[in-house]
Amino acid sequence: MKENESPYCHCLYYSSNALARVMTKMAEECFAPAGLSPSYAFIVMSVNKNPGIPSGELARMMMLTPSTVTRLLEKLEEQQLVKRVREGRKILVFPTPSSVDLNDIIVQGWQGLYHRIVAVTGNETAEKLTSNIYRAALQLAGK
Fold it and tell me: Per-residue DSSP letters for 43-111?
């Protein structure tokens, strides 16, 4: 074992969580100018791009449980960054003027995160790693 290796480096659970911690720190730094955590930033971007998106579709898109999305939307609604409207059994989510105003800053944060990753790993590795991790997440989730 190399000096800087963990004894758990061959465990997918350990390695994926280590990566998630590093990525979360980087993403938090990149989205800080918007005043949002990464999860909130991705939801705001999604709602801005898809006005009237059903909350269930947001949950599917974000690979989160509906209850988690509901909790996140409640906080965003308190910050006046989204508006939820009930339509029959569905909850539709709309952007507000404030969320639209923030969109460029959020997108810049997202692009900044990508550039930070590419600066370390290179473009080809970043794209392959992203694709492989997402595909593995889908497979392990049974999708």
Answer: HHHHHHHSTTEEHHHHHHHHT--HHHHHHHHHHHHHTTSEEEEEETTEEEEEE-HHHHHHHHHHHHHHH
pLDDT band, residue 2 (cuts 50/70/90) = low
Answer whether residue 113 shows pLDDT above 60: yes
Measure Cα distances from 15 to 10, 18, 118 in Å. 7, 5, 20
pLDDT of residue 7: 82
67 in a domain, yes or no?
Answer: yes
CATH number of the domain bearing residue 36: 1.10.10.10
The confidence score (pLDDT) of residue 5 equals 76
- Count of structural domains, the chain: 1
Condensed to tens digits (0 to 9), the pLDDT of residues 5-38 reads 778 888 999 999 999 999 999 999 999 999 999 9
5 within some domain: no
3-class state of residue 24 by DSSP: helix
Residue 58 lies in a domain: yes
Domain hosting residue 83, numbered range: 12-140
In a domain, 4, yes or no: no
